[in-house]
Amino acid sequence: MDQKAQNLLSSLELIAKSYFIRYKNKINCAHDWSHVLRVKRNCEKILQYETSANRLEVQIAVILHDIGRFKDDLGDHAEWSYLSQKKF
């Protein structure tokens, strides 16, 4: 992975992690930042076998997949995650 892509991932991780820190009282502990790190580890294992997958897209999806989790009480967190990540 080139440096530009690595910088992008690092920046997105900081932004996403800040959501989990800011809204930690509104997020089920099963879907906190530790959950994202577990998903990241699992995806790394899968990407070893799925060599045709776009590694950068998968990693971005992993980082951002639950950033809307803090709005679970307002509806589907997947939709909130999608709308939140569009900002980036």
Overall spatial form: globular
SSE order in H/E notation? HHHH
Structural class: mainly alpha
- In the CATH hierarchy, the third-tier topology is known as Cyclin A, domain 1
CATH architecture: Orthogonal Bundle
Q: What is the CATH class name?
A: Mainly Alpha
How many individual β-strands?
0
Number of helices: 4
How helical, in percent, are the residues? 55-70%
Report the major sheet.
none
User: What ranges have pLDDT less than 50 throughout 5 or more consecutive residues?
Assistant: none
- Give the count of structural domains: 1
Overall pLDDT confidence: 79
Rg from alpha-carbon coordinates: 13 Å
The proportion of strand residues reads under 5%
Our measurement of the CA-to-CA distance between the termini, rounded to an integer number of angstroms, reads 20 Å
Walk me through the structure.
There is one protein chain. With 88 residues, the protein is mainly alpha-helical. It has one domain (3-85): Cyclin A, domain 1. The protein has 4 helices and no strands. It has helices at 3-22, 33-49, 55-64, 77-85. Helix 1 (3-22) packs parallel to helix 3 (55-64) and helix 2 packs antiparallel against helix 3. The protein is globular. The two termini are 20 Å apart. The relative contact order is 0.16. The model has no long low-confidence stretch (mean pLDDT 79).
What order do the helices and strands come in, and which of them pair?
Elements: H1 3-22, H2 33-49, H3 55-64, H4 77-85
Helix pairs in contact: 1-3, 2-3
